Each structure stands twice: as structure tokens, then as C-alpha cells.
Amino acid sequence: MEKTDDKKWKEKLSPQEYNVLREKGTEIPFTGKYNKHKENGMYTCVACGNELFSSDTKFDSGTGWPSFSDVAKSKGVELHEDTEDTAFGMKRVEVVCAKCKSHLGHVFDDGPGPTGKRYCINSVCLNFKKK
To answer: How many helices (H) and strands (E) does the chain have?
Structure first.
């Protein structure tokens, strides 16, 4: 689906999904269905099915959103640095699905080894495929 086709996105996504994925919103912390999720499998983009994160890299960051230390495949996501996005007094780097360009969340440099990354992702952006 074309990134700019808002009518089709609104038909495909729930209002909350549309707000987060297409308008760069966020869900309320500690409310997402995958925040405390612990099954083994693959987290995929709810909008297009692209494989994003393996459960092997999921960890509890205590932030209220699902957190991952690495991506499932190197070209599964894109990172967009926005020097104007200084919400909460910090520079944030946006995480976007490489396939459909949907907003997923942000990545920070305060995660566990070996990557040191914390991909902070909205549950509403994800589906889960059990192993």
C-alpha cells in the first residue's frame, strides 16, 4: 500500500493503530498488549506483516512499552534522526517499518549488551507469530 494513501490506511487500521503508525502518536505506557508478553516467536508490523523483532531480543526496560535490544533483520526497520524532536528533554531517533514506512517507536542508546540499544516500540504497531 502506498505510504500516502490515507483513505486506504484508515480503512485497514483501527483508529489507535492509525494514530500511532501513520500520525506518529504513542500509546499510554503500561497499557499495550505486548509490554509484559513473554512467548517465543516473531513480532511483525501490524500494517504490512514485515518481520521486525525476535522475542530473543525482548527485555523488560521498565518503561511501559515493549523493548528490544536488536532488530530481526538488518533491513527490517529504518532509523530517522529528527534534530527537532527533543520531547522529554532528549534527542530521539524514530524507528520506522522499512516496508510500509509506518512509525513504530524510538531507539535509544541505553539498552543491554551486546548492542547497547533499546528499541522502544508501541504494542499497537505489532502482531506476534508464535514459534
So the answer is: 2, 9
Cell matching residue 31: 497499557
| Annotated active-site residue in 45, 97, 120, 125 | 120
The architecture that CATH gives domain 6-130 is Beta Complex (2.170)
pTM of the model: 0.90
Distance of CA 66 to the CA centre of its chain: 8
Catalytic status, residue 120: yes
Q: Of all helices (H) and strands (E), which one includes residue 58?
A: strand 58-59
Distance CA 60, CA 56 (A): 12
Question: Which residues contact residue 17 at a Cβ distance below 8 angstroms, ignoring those fewer than 6 apart?
Answer: 46, 47, 124, 125
Looking up cell 530473543 gives 56
Question: For residue 86, what pLDDT is reported?
Answer: 58
Confidence of residue 4 (pLDDT cuts 50, 70, 90): low
Burial class (CB within 10 angstroms; exposed 0-12, middle 13-18, buried 19+) of 15: exposed
